[in-house]
Amino acid sequence: MTLLAIGINYHTAPVSIRERLAFSKENLHTSLQELLNIKDIHEAAILSTCNRTEFYCTSTSTDQHALIEWIAYNKHIDRADFLPYLYCHTDHELIRHIFRVACGLDSMILGEPQILGQMKSAYHAASAAGTLGKQLGKLFQSTFSAAKKVRTDTAIGSSPISVAFAAVQLAQQIFNDLNEQTALLIGAGEIIELTARHLTQHNIGKLIIANRTYNNAHTLASQFNGYAIDLKELPNHLAEADIVISSTGSTLPILGKGRVESALKKRKHKPIFMVDLAVPRDIEAEVEQLRDVYLYTVDDLQHTIDANMNSRRLAAEQAEEIIDTQVEHFLSWLRAQGAQSTIKEYRIYAEQTRDEVLLKTLKLVNNGMPAEEALTRLAYLLTNKLTHIPSTQLKIAAENERDDLIIAAREIFKLNDTQ
């Protein structure tokens, strides 16, 4: 049985192709079951995210033609449209690939943790669809173990590498517990949305979103249990904010020194943590001169991000070493499975031989043979029958100068070195 994977990701395919091969939760169950109808495929799982779609299978063949044809049919896409973007992995390469994916080493953002959750979702979907067997099931479990070990033994996910996350982590270091703080976000673009998401994940106490277009602020605020204000209302709410993070496209500063000074007086000089993620800046540089303000710019955070990115790269090198070991562990398990059918057949043969000899011995006892004599006879017959075929095969091996088989037999039976 061969482990087989084909897929596309952000390295190999543009979003226009990735979106056409994506699978929704609604049709994943049926699609997984359809995969088992493809000739030679015995197990199947599908990982589908915004950055990749990958098919993991066990197959009696390495031929991917039937699987590719099914993808084209299922997604209503000409195979020529996506074939140039496909990659294929089998056995050792596949094991290493899926381990690296789960650890975030193949992600757009190095070490990002979301992919592990998506991998677990793929596993649960395949399990629910009944398309997982012994090999893929074990592969996924080994993948999760490898990812856990990488997360535990390296710093791959401990350092922020986006300005939004870096800003929120810095706020957490300053305030320790964010659930008692009020955050005021200025803007409604992607960075502010990401910042709102991180703040919510860190249990921010209160979230206010200010934007020049109120509807945009309201749409974003409603996603995170916050409330929206128009930019004109900013002076009325600035004093509420313990944390201010701004990222707009304004060409002029939105917050000046005087306005912040007024807010501090209302707060009785309770400190404000401010992060200006905009270029050009939203907050006047002079604000930094105020005693009770901690102002950081995108450049200040970039130093942290660059240092953390280097930290992640070093952690990634450690992760690769861990993955090498984990891949070898899985390959050892896989190789052992190759002997299972032989072991099972040999045990059946031994048990049949035992039952045959035992039956003959019981008949002799029933016919009056003394028990001690019967047991001696049983031991003799059983030994002869169990050693007859191996002895014959070893003689044939010697006649044919198959020293390798004789050496292997001595190792299997743990015989000493004396002939």
Which labels suit this protein?
single chain; 419 residues; alpha/beta; Beta Polymerase, domain 2; six-stranded parallel beta sheet; 10 strands; 56% helix; 14% strand; elongated
Query: Pairing-aware structural class of the strands and helices?
Result: alpha/beta
Overall geometric form = elongated
Major sheet: size, sense and barrel closure? 6 strands, parallel
Name given to the CATH architecture of the largest domain: 2-Layer Sandwich
Average pLDDT metric:
91
Count of helix runs:
15
Helix residue percentage: 55-70%
According to CATH, what is the class of the largest domain? Alpha Beta
Strand fraction band? 5-15%
The strand line-up of the biggest sheet is 7-6-5-8-9-10
N→C terminal distance: 39 Å
Number of strands: 10
At CATH level 3, the topology of the largest domain is: Beta Polymerase, domain 2
Count of structural domains: 3
CA radius of gyration: 33 Å
SSE arrangement:
Blueprint: E1 2-9, H1 15-18, H2 25-35, E2 41-48, E3 52-59, H3 65-75, H4 79-82, E4 87-90, H5 91-102, H6 114-129, H7 134-153, H8 163-175, E5 182-186, H9 190-201, E6 206-211, H10 214-223, E7 227-230, H11 234-237, E8 243-246, H12 257-266, E9 272-276, E10 293-297, H13 298-366, H14 371-399, H15 403-412
Parallel strand pairs: 5-6, 5-8, 6-7, 8-9, 9-10
Antiparallel strand pairs: 1-3, 1-4, 2-3
Helix pairs in contact: 2-6, 5-7, 5-13, 6-7, 7-13, 8-9, 13-14
